[in-house]
Amino acid sequence: MKTNFLRLAGLFSLMFGSVMLFTQCNTDVNGLGPEDFQGNLQWGNGRGRGAQSGGQGGASAKQGEKGLPKEEVCTCLATNFPMEALSDAEKESLVFMAEEEKLARDVYLGLYAKWQSPVFSNIASSEQRHMDAISCLLTKYTLKDPVGDNAAGVFANEALQSLYAKLLAEGSASLEAAFKVGATIEDLDISDLLKATEMADNQDVKAVYAELTKGSRNHLRSFTKNLANLEASYVPQYISKELFDGILSQDQERGGSICGVCPNNQAGNGSQGANCNGAGQGNNGKGANGTGSGQGNNGKGRGRG
Length: 305
Known about the structure:
Elements: H1 2-29, H2 34-38, H3 61-66, H4 70-80, H5 88-115, H6 118-140, H7 158-171, H8 175-199, H9 203-229, H10 241-248, E1 277-280, E2 291-295, E3 300-304
Antiparallel strand pairs: 1-2, 2-3
Helix pairs in contact: 4-6, 5-6, 5-7, 5-8, 6-9, 7-8, 8-9
């Protein structure tokens, strides 16, 4: 009896290990990275350990899993960054990026409905956070949001309307084609964000664009990984081959903490400025990923980069 029990226990352990291994492999196939669990945009709030910042921490682990509510993102951008005059180029880019992020979300929602691959639903959720961040900037600068109450697949920009129909049709042909459409969208998004960043000088606009670009790099890695699992590949169409290879050579990046780091390269989340009181070393302070304590926008806490 004892021998049989030990054999059963050993068999159970082997089965459990196999399940865990399969789950890990399946996670890779689904393209889940740090961003999917922490949220691409981690905005400083309350108590918690911060990502890449000293002083006030970024979003807590629990908050970071789904990202903070849009209202808190808007408050963050309104209070932690100065109101600066927007150039015409910045206005145009914000309006355009609002719908380009919607394009990504809507196509991914359509492809998820077609193929039921979790990578599309996961990244669609991230694209919604991107849309929220752009919407907050449009509200801050009293610009009309072209997204409004438009349903999925409806765009004010005619070029994006045509591109949506084209990409959705292409991605509906096969799962491989769908992953290539995903890579194409992120390729285009990175290219447009880099151009928009070059034209921008407002601190909040540049900070949000940097986070969106980071998210797109993660998404591009996820789609190319899924293609590799199908023994397929993607050739960049909008960014250079050198930049593309460089992105794929790096690991998934953690979402930033825009409001866990003060603008103007102040130390940690501290030094002078409204809602940026305290002391510490942070990402934009005296040392990258330092530690420190201080008081942030919506609560007290300690952060470790």
